[in-house]
């Protein structure tokens, strides 16, 4: 099916008014993207930040008259001139199916493979986990997740207890189980992440060794042999005392989600009780690993 697509560039302050105006006259969907070159690298937990300059794309039924749309845009962006906008026709597409078709198996470390559903592993003897595309950080393609998976794949995980704090899609928890962890606790503040981890775990083995919980459901003082925390640097710094409570002398720590320029701050927050190795870098991102003293 063909849809009428409307695109307009606006300031972040006008997004809410423009969205409301377009929805009121029948917009079927609205997508926001960066109209400049501004990265949002570290939002506060629970925040949904926007770029300063937004490209808004809306879809309408193809028979909708363009004039009411332009009038709605003019009203929502007043006072001032109507910002640049354009109209076009786009074909319907199953984006999830397209993404699934484009994703290929990924190898981490010596023989850990992350494979989309229906894609066979190129290495029959490899350790394989299956992850559904479409979840943030869910398939190992982001640098921070890839750093963790490469590190985890070559660690002695078998028969060890693992804490995955900030589990997201559950990819690190599920990889730990596939690598032979005795038990894994997957923790996240987002109930959607908890559900996503449970759903992805259902596609892989080892569920009986996995506990997926919110932070207040994690037992106080319960310690683990490996701590994985793929979060944001500010969140890692804030959580350092709480994470210490779940480690014992000799716990192996892996911290990710850290930009190179933020590594010193995170190291300082954990440095009193973690003896860090030299950092591992990938592009602008850093993995910090070490042993609890």
How would you explain this protein's 3D organization?
With 293 residues, the chain is of the alpha/beta class. The chain has two domains: 2-92, 2-Layer Sandwich (Alpha-Beta Plaits); 150-292, Vaccinia Virus protein VP39 (Rossmann fold), CATH 3.40.50. 28% of the residues lie in helices and 31% in strands. Strands 8, 9, 10, 11, 12, 13, 14 and 15 form an eight-stranded mixed sheet that branches. Strands 2-3-1-4 form a four-stranded antiparallel sheet, with helices on one face. It has a three-stranded mixed sheet with strand order 5-6-7. A hairpin with a 2-residue loop joins β14 and β15 (285-292). α1 packs antiparallel against α2 (66-77), α4 runs parallel beside α5 and α7 (233-244) runs parallel beside α8 (263-270). It is elongated, with a radius of gyration of 23 Å. The model is unreliable at 38-49 (pLDDT under 50).
Assembly category:
single chain
Please outline the major beta sheet: 8 strands, mixed
CATH architecture descriptor text of the largest domain? 3-Layer(aba) Sandwich
Binned, the helix content reads 25-40%
Q: What would the average pLDDT be, to the nearest integer?
A: 85
Provide the number of structural domains.
Answer: 2
- The whole-angstrom Rg is 23 Å
Can you tell me the overall shape?
elongated
- In whole angstroms, how far apart are the ends? 61 Å
Strand proportion, as a percent range, falls in 25-35%
The DSSP helix count reads: 8
Order of helices and strands: EHEEHEHEEEHEHEHEEHEHEEE
Q: What's the level 1 CATH class of the largest domain?
A: Alpha Beta
């Amino acid at each position: 099916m063909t849809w009428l697509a409307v695109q307009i560039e606006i300031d972040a302050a006008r997004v809410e008014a423009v969205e409301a105006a377009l929805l009121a006259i029948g917009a079927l969907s609205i997508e926001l993207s960066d109209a400049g070159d501004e990265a949002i690298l570290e939002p506060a937990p629970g925040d949904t930040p926007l770029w300063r300059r937004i490209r808004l794309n809306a879809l309408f039924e193809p028979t909708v008259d363009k004039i009411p749309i332009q009038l709605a845009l003019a009203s929502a962006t007043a006072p001032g001139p109507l910002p640049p906008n354009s109209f076009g026709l786009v074909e319907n597409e199953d984006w999830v199916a397209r993404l699934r078709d484009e994703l290929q198996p990924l190898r981490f470390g010596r023989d850990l493979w992350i494979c989309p559903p229906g894609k066979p592993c190129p290495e029959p003897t490899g350790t394989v986990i299956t992850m559904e595309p479409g979840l943030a950080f869910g398939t190992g393609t982001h640098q921070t997740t890839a750093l963790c998976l490469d590190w985890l794949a070559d660690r002695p995980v078998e028969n060890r207890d693992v804490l995955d704090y900030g589990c997201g899609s559950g990819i690190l928890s599920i990889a730990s189980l596939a690598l032979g962890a005795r038990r894994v606790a997957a923790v996240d503040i987002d109930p959607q992440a908890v559900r996503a981890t449970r759903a992805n775990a259902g596609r892989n083995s080892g569920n009986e060794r996995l506990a997926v919980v919110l932070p207040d459901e994690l037992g106080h003082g319960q310690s683990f042999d490996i701590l994985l925390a793929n979060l944001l640097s500010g969140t890692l710094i804030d959580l350092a005392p709480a994470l210490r409570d779940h480690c014992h002398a000799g716990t192996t720590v892996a911290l990710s989600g850290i930009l190179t320029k933020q590594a010193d701050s995170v190291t300082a927050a954990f440095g009193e009780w973690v003896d860090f190795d030299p950092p591992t870098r990938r592009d602008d991102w850093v993995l910090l690993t070490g042993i609890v003293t």
